């Protein structure tokens, strides 16, 4: 049961026909507004405006005067369901909810609205709630899950960084004899460092490329399960890929520098 201003307040667009107005009075024939899902279900491919249906309790005929866009009532991930709106002016309801669109902070309007209703003689049990608070409440479970996923993802990233540091350091240290020999033969430190960085860049680049492809695949699978996930989360993928690349180059540099500065005679002794 809604009044004439319900759709404009919540900005639910009218697709066909009209919504309720002052002409829809109690003694007039019942009229209803339906959403797109119900229109497509009852009259697929046809114009439902002006058609009649049996609705209410007890059942009685009502005429469809308009079609509005589908709206989510409780959760953001709700699947559109058939919905029918009755004119509040034609039906008695003991308890109603007041929805107000405000300018600025909506919490500042709670007391003025409450005072206005009391002055009008309306018996109210007024528990003001903003739509932001309602949205936060409806997303509690999703945010708990997202927080847990974020923590686990952070731990996974930390383990990946530590593993990358360890593997690159070990790989470079295993080449100490080769590096020592090159130093003894007169190779410049800058040339050897450039060689190590290029090889590290190649290997890490291949791994990052594979990781991005797997990330795109995972995003495609999760899009239907999580709200607000884009087709490809380039910001996340590129940021993580770039971070891992920087970590790899830093690890390679720090691991290689001690062996590039070794005395040639000491280097020959290692060989």
Q: Between the first and last Cα atoms, what is the distance in angstroms? A: 88 Å
Low-confidence runs of at least 5 consecutive residues: none
Order of helices and strands: HEEHEEEHHHHHHH
Per the principal axes of the C-alpha atoms, what is the gross shape? Answer: elongated
Q: Compute the gyration radius: what is it?
A: 33 Å
Q: What percent of residues adopt helix (DSSP H or I)?
A: 40-55%
SS-based structural class? alpha+beta
Q: How many independent structural domains? A: 2
Mean pLDDT: 83
The counted number of beta strands is: 5
The profile of the biggest β sheet is: 5 strands, mixed
Q: What proportion of the residues form beta strands (DSSP E)? A: 5-15%
Please work out how many helical segments DSSP would assign.
9
What does this structure look like?
This protein has 2 domains: 6-96, no CATH class; 139-270, no CATH class. Helix content is 52%, strand content 9%. The chain has helices at residues 6-9, 36-42, 110-119, 131-138, 140-173, 176-184, 189-222, 234-260, 264-270; strands at 14-17, 31-35, 52-55, 60-68, 84-86. A hairpin with a 4-residue loop joins strand 3 (52-55) and strand 4 (60-68). The protein is elongated and about 105 Å long. The N and C termini lie far apart (88 Å).
Question: Quick gist of this model?
Answer:
With 271 residues, the protein is of the alpha+beta class. It contains nine helices and five strands, in the order H-E-E-H-E-E-E-H-H-H-H-H-H-H. Helix 5 runs parallel beside helix 8 and helix 7 packs antiparallel against helix 8.
Secondary structure layout plus pairing:
Blueprint: H1 6-9, E1 14-17, E2 31-35, H2 36-42, E3 52-55, E4 60-68, E5 84-86, H3 110-119, H4 131-138, H5 140-173, H6 176-184, H7 189-222, H8 234-260, H9 264-270
Parallel strand pairs: 2-4
Antiparallel strand pairs: 1-4, 2-5, 3-4
